[in-house]
Design brief:
The protein has one helix and four strands. The chain has one domain. The protein is of the alpha+beta class. Strands 1, 2, 3 and 4 form a four-stranded antiparallel sheet that branches. The radius of gyration is 13 Å and the shape is globular. Strand 1 and strand 2 form a beta hairpin. About 15% of the residues lie in helices and about 30% in strands.
């Protein structure tokens, strides 16, 4: 199994997704953006990772930051 070669992280694109716990197949994929911009948007949406994250059991949905392949 080959691994994806590492590239410069500053040039890679990231997305902030919203996943719904009631319907796993329903996800909103935002616009691809640079890592710093995506991290800033994720921090703003989740109050610096304290709410609406995968670990937050009280919310019906949560945000996820991931690298666009």
């Amino acid at each position: 199994m080959s691994k994806k070669p590492k590239t410069g992280f500053t040039q890679d694109l990231w997305v902030v997704e919203y996943l719904d716990r009631m319907n796993r197949s329903d996800s909103f994929e935002g616009q691809a953006m640079p890592r710093e911009e995506a991290e800033a948007k994720y921090a703003a949406l989740t109050d610096n990772g304290t709410r609406k994250t995968a670990q937050d059991k009280k919310s019906m949905g949560y945000y996820q930051l991931r690298q666009k392949a």
